[in-house]
Design a protein that fits this description.
The protein has about 800 residues and is α+β, with helices and mostly antiparallel strands. Helix content is about 65%, strand content about 10%. A hairpin with a 2-residue loop joins β3 and β4 (about 50).
Length: about 800
Amino acid sequence: MSASNEPEVSVSLDKVRQHFVVDAELHQGFQLGSLVIEPDLGIVIRNAQRYHLAPKAMEVLLYLSSTNGEIVSREQISAFAWGDNHAAKTNVTHVISEIRHVLDDHKECPTYIQTIPRKGYRMLLPTVAKSVNSIWPFPADQVHQISGSEKKWQLSFSLLKSSRLINASAAYLVVSWVLLQVFSIILPIFDVPTWGGKVGALCLVIGFPLVISFQWYKEFKIRKKFAYENNKNHRFIYQQLSVDSFCILIILLIIYYLSTHLIEKIERESNSQPLNVIVDNKAPIANVVENAVAILPFHATDLDNNPQYFISGLQEELVNLLTLKAVFKVSSIRAINALEPKASIEEIKNILGVKYIVEGRSKVVNSVLIINTIMTDVVTGFQVWSDESKGSIDELVILYSDLSRKITNALRLLIVGDNAENKINAMPTENFAAYDAYLQGKEKYRNSKNINSLVAAEKLFITALQLDPDFIQASSALCQTYLDKYLLSNDTKEYEKGLNVCQLIASNRTVSFESELALGRLYRVNGQYEKAETHLNKAKLIKPESSEVFISLADLYAKLEQSDKAESLYQQAISFELGNWKNYYDYGLFLFNSGRYEDAISQFNKVILINNSTAMAYNALGAVYYMVLNFEQANIAWSKSLAIKPTALTFSNLGTVLFFMQRFENAAEMYLQSAELSSLDPTVWGNLGDAFKYSENSTLKAQAAYKKGLDLAQKNAVINDKDPSLQAQISRYYSELTQCDQAKKHQEIVLNNNVHDPYIYYDLAIVAINCFDVNDMKPFIKKAIFLGYPRQLLLADPQFYDYKHWIKEIV
């Protein structure tokens, strides 16, 4: 049946097209009685007012206006407008009603469209095409028909809205906005001062009144000429002139204000002296220190025969040795490793602020290890010293001692003019096998990206100590390894091992700095803050300009909620090593935890400027954007973090976003991936429990996840039972397991500490909800918001849905 109908429909359409042809001139506008129809604009002008008409309705009105008063059936209208003469009759009826509403026409007493029962519709008034030269948006005689000053003014503003003046103004503003965006991108590339962009903006502002004045003058001349030629009301012409002039005057006043403001700012910025400050959109530049040196990594040209671990370990050993000499300022391994792999001499100078760099290459010829070392002055670019050291592969300790002595003496000669041998060049051990194991362990430790690398380093350090129990450097390295294993895995056994080793070596003068630093960090972790402060200050006395010490002290004072003191230390650490991205990262974390999100974004952006391949910087940046509700930028940052290196924290953050979007099953998948990478982190298991809690048929999984999180949190509490964040976490997990008595007990421990962390009060509020204590929940929520927790996140949090109306009312 469908095949036989197709010719019939096409014939009907052909008849419609042949019978009625829409005049092309009508598309430019036409007059229908006292109305003006603008089909291309989709508007009808009635009584000097504009009314919008939908495209389909305008198409039907245009078709009816082309019929010269003939009757048109519903089928013809359907065929013309919908391409199907069997379309539903209600389509035509609805469109005709819409047209009548806009035309202010009535079915019972029509002025424009008449309904002919069982036949169709007819247009009652003739159509008059609008003159292409007319600039009037109303019929020829409508001015004379309008009475009353109010309606005339309405007509004047209608004319202003439809004039070229408005169109030209809108076009100019759009073009200006585009140009300003181009200026903001192009000008910094050519190092144009910041006031250069404001000069461009000033030119655009001044050009605006010139453009619209010119356009207005042209249009006024056309109106005046048209009025004289068609005997229009000249009084109305001048009335329209006053309306236009008034609008232009307002625009000129706005332009005058903006121009004077911009001129003052340009003068102020062009006359001001450049300040020596860190600019957010440029990497900071360090000042060159005359006695500063950086030991770059040594490289092996023959990887098969070279003892690679010895060559890669030379850098760290030389740094440790030179650091003990007060006459030198040595760039830390942390700062050097933050450099790009192929950094130029200029980049090294700007980032590290050193005067000299030492680098070297090695090769093996007939079982003889040859190390070629050069020293370069980064200011001049000249090579100021070179050396070739040789030694048997079986005598690496002697070779290291010889090379370190030569480098030390060369630096002393360049910096203080004394080439005497330094008496501190003591060999770390006389047992080559012990030293060999130690160097291999240091290489594993330096490249540690996961727990497996740290385990391998631990085994090698233990081997070195078994061969030489007095090898104190190996003990110090083992202490640091245990500490990092604990921080990475949350395994309390690693903490106990680290504590024992660090305490044994703390009194040894040779590595007292490393020992004191490690002990300070360990005591900070277990809540013995006074001991932590004591050991860190001892480390500070040994190396008064070590950024590692200042960062560790700042972390301690941040834990003690001495924010001003902590922030000062973070800033001092940055000043010591302006090119070390890790210092900016640690400071950014402090700002983030303090609720200063905009400042944190600035610090994390500096990290990325210095080293754009740092996954944890992008992850942290995403977390800050998330807290300021910029979810688009957060997802971009987290995607970059995952592209560089998948981490448990990034997966956890993505899971939280999905959780807030109520995609609980997807959130659980992300948290599971996070748990695979960090299986001993109680927070990850708690987040997984939340996702299962709101997923269908996953109650048992949620309980198991909360139980796992509680067990891990309690193990950590054995090390530091004073940590309020940990106690709040334990309280939260007890409440999820419906053990409210235990939850209340740990809640009291938290409240006795008078904490100022918004995330702690967030956890306590959930405890109150789980234990049906709404009276406690409300002050906790108020406190969390007061301390910086975003209200919008609470409103989006499924755990607070029942209290959304109350949260909205919090001031």
